[in-house]
DNA sequence: CTGAAAGCGCTAACAG
DNA sequence: CTGTTAGCGCTTTCAG
């Protein structure tokens, strides 16, 4: 097994002083003579001493670990948010333990239990798609363990949250479509109970009415966020007696699937039908035509979530803050009928 | 701060017995009376007791944490490998701490230092692109801390590794191109010192000679794995007096960039030039034309790395094992000139 | 059958 | 200026 690392005791013995002297010397305690401090530090450096975090943790009851639970690691959005979290966690000397719920409520609960057992100091969580019961979160709150939600959120009166301005963004996409000549605009949403589904739906409706368009309920489609289900929703839309001439989806993965389906259906993008997504993954510029998409400040979302988390650790009585991050509509080929691949910001 | 959790002491006090009795009761020690065991377990369950991992860690000198260092989290390949690692780690009751080196040698060293300080029980690492000096790895080995490499590897005589069959795969792509009518086959490689660059290059050369093609050195291009640098390499290839009629790249990201560049250059895929990638990301089927790619068993690579890791923790004297995982060439539109979007496996 | 005591590595209050 | 002691939560001899 692993070689035991040097401890204060080892150094103390080697120097012929007591353990506490070494401990103090290492932190420049004023009571220790300068020469001793120098000697202690020299030896500690030589032996590559570093304090045992478990001993410290036991003493201070702190693990410096944050538990992060996300629906899916294998996604540009989530992995990018995690980089953001990691960035500020590292600054603060914290480690991040990521567990994926795989969009499963059961797994989400399990992950929380496991991480609580591991004594993480708190949680940063994005709800699984299935989650409609919040008792496991209440449990965290009751144990007075810091908790922050991002993107998919709940219990906003008790828990700080970071989200994108979904409403505004969906409204923006809708009127962008309209401005480019579309009048039969469809939206493929996600599970109803998710805040992001709902807010984007509201923005969509507002966008329609802003443009003087009627809401036609078959144009409001739904999927479970998987490519397969998104493809099926797309097919339903395209098969309508009067099919839409523009579609946007709750995220880019959904729209990539819609894009494939549209092409299979024999329609041209954007000539026959315009497309736009949400999140602006790297791959939006890789597909052809390049995908118009609402760019999320994903890394910043992670950073912000971590910042809220640390605010909370410092003061658990804080009134839960809700941060809404601005998004940007990045217009690309998939929603512009005029020739030219312009790429302009809203 | 966090509420202190119940300890053995709390339960012991409440039951009017000693701490050691509770400790024994919880693990069905034969010396404890059955009724006491029942009472102890009941109360422990009620109070939601779980042993403090730091106390255990201090005692047993084990943290049950694995440090994983990868070049980049925001990539299908790496996040998928990590899911695989997490899967088996979780089975074994281990946690995974992921840090990204961002392809930086400096950061890679730092991450190792930090994780050693955190007393992870060992490492699973994929080298950063910049890494050519291996002293930080030697340090891990000397400390007798378990270490496993995957994908980008080094020190194979000392460290167990999991890689894909790069040589065979590159050879396969080359002859697939040839079989589909290409004769001027180019390869965009990555940094020279990476094993994956080199093995794929060797496979490419073997493939050429298998097909009776001459090696033409301008067709062996190189990039630093960024989309920008891949695009530049592509442009150099396309601007050659006699440009290639087929290109494959060291990974899909590179080829996505090549695809964009090719289109910008005004060439049709696959009519004018065929393309193929490595890794088979999800997005290979999203681009148009769909990308032929060498499918990596990414999740399995993670699982295998974790398995090797645990073998190592159980016996540090094991002879380092090198596992090579089979890949599959998934043929899609980007490399097939006949009409029809066939999708067949090799 | 059960309790007391030592020790894992460290800090901090209390003595000198 | 430096050492001793207690204690963080737990397991494990060693004594009852």
Folded structure, characterized:
The structure is a homodimer. By secondary structure, the first copy, chain A, is α/β, with parallel strands linked by helices. Chain A has 3 domains: about 10-50, no CATH class; about 60-160 and about 300-325, Rossmann fold (3-Layer(aba) Sandwich); about 165-295 and about 330-340, Rossmann fold, CATH 3.40.50.2300. Chain A has 12 helices and 13 strands. Chain A has helices spanning about 10-15, 20-25, 35-45, 55-60, 75-90, 105-115, 135-140, 165-180, 195-210, 225-240, 250-265, 300-315; strands at about 65-70, 95-100, 120-125, 145-150, 160-165, 185-190, 220, 245-250, 275-280, 290-295, 320-325, 330, 345. In chain A, the strands form 2 sheets. Chain A has a 7-stranded mixed sheet with strand order 7-6-8-9-10-12-13, with helices on both faces. In chain A, strands 2-1-3-4-5-11 form a 6-stranded parallel sheet, with helices on both faces. In chain A, helix 11 links the parallel strand 8 (about 245-250) and strand 9 (about 275-280). In chain A, helix 2 (about 20-25) packs across helix 3 (about 35-45) and helix 8 runs parallel beside helix 9 (about 195-210). The radius of gyration of chain A is 26 Å and the shape is elongated. The interface between A and B is large, with 54 and 54 residues. Chain A binds a DNA duplex (16 and 16 nucleotides) through helix 2 and helix 4.
